[in-house]
Amino acid sequence: MSFSDHRPSPDALLHPYVDITFKAMFTDKSFESKEALKGFLTDIIGRDIKEVSLIPNEPAAKRTQDKAIRFDVACVFNDGDEADIEMQGNNTDMMYDKRSEYLVARLLDQTVNRGDSYKGIKQVYQISVLNFIFDSDDSQAESWYVLRKQNGHTLGRVMNVIFIELPKVIKKEFPVEKLQGWEKWGIFIAEAGNPDKQDYVRKIAASNGGIMQAQKVLNKISAQDIAWKRELDRDILAMDEAEKLQAAKDREERGRKEGLQRGIQQGIQQGIQRGIEQGIQQGIQQTAKNMKNLGIDTATIEKATGLSENEILQL
To answer: Could you tell me which of 152, 158, 163, 290 has the fewest CB atoms within 10 Å of its CB?
Structure first.
C-alpha cells in the first residue's frame, strides 16, 4: 500500500494506547484479533481463556434513571464470565476509581436476569489500561481490586477491577525473559508505536503468541490512511482541549494576581487613610491636653477641639 500523507513513514505503527486503535486491535473481525483478545485476557486475568465473543458495548438500561455508558471492549468467555476492557488516557476529574466501580457494577447488572440463582452468578472483570499514574503511593504497575473484609477475607470475588498503569510498566527496559505476561502487554501497548523501541517490541511479540497476533492486527490497521487521520484528529482535539484548559488556568491565575494586587492597593489606601485619621485625632488630643495644661476651662476646650467632656477629663 502506498505511503499516505497522514502516515509519518511507510513502516510507522499506530499507538495502541490511543483508544480508537486499542479498540480496533481487539475488535477487528479477524482470527488474529480474536486470538489477541484471548491472549490479553489470559495474561491479565491469569486464566486460560479458551473462547471469547464480543458483546454489545452499550448495555441496555433496565431503569429509566440508569446512567448511559459505553464499554470500550465488552466480551463474554466460554464459561459465561464477562469482561469490559478500557483504554484510559487521563484521570478525568480524578474520578476514575468511581467510574471503574460503576462500570463493573453495570457489567454485573447486565449478566443477571430475574429468576437467576445467586449460585449461577458469573464473575465480571473491569480491566483498565491507564496511560497515567493512578496510585502514586504504590510502585506496583498492576492492581487487582475485589470486595474484602478488614482481615483480608474476600466475598464472592464476583466483581473484579484490574488496573495496569503504563507509566510504571515502562520505567525500565527489563530482559524479555524476565517479564510477566501482563508486563509484556503493557510495554507493547505503550511502545509499539514508538520507532525507538521497535527491536524491544519485536522481541516481546516473538515471546508471546497473543501479542504476536496483536502486532499483526496493528500492522494491518496501520496501513489504513483513515486510521492515521483519526489518530491525527484525536491528537489535534486533545491539544485543543489542553490549550483550552491551559488558557482557563492562565485566566484564573491572572484573575488571582489581579485580585491580589487590587487587595494590596486597597489595603495600602485604607492604611494611609487610617493613618491620616489617627494622626489628626492624635493632634486634636494633644492640642486639648496643652489647653488643659494652660488652665483653660473644659467648656472652651470642648468648643475648640470637638472632644467630649469625658474625653478631655481622661487626657
So the answer is: 152
pTM of the model: 0.71
Supply the range of the domain harboring residue 259. Answer: 249-313
Grid cell at residue 169: 510498566
Comparing C-alpha atoms, which of 71, 83, 70, 16 is closest to residue 43? 83
pLDDT digits (tens, 9 = 90+) for 156-207: 889 999 999 999 999 878 899 999 999 999 999 999 999 999 999 999 999 9
287: exposed, middle or buried (Cβ count in 10 Å: 0-12, 13-18, 19+): middle
In the chain, % of residues over pLDDT 90 = 46
Q: Write down which residue in 206, 223, 240 finishes a domain.
A: 223
Closest alpha carbon to 48 in 77, 13, 22: 77
Q: Taking Cα atoms as reference points, which of 107, 119, 190 lies closest to residue 156?
A: 119
What is the CB-side half-sphere exposure of residue 38 using CA atoms within 13 A?
Answer: 16
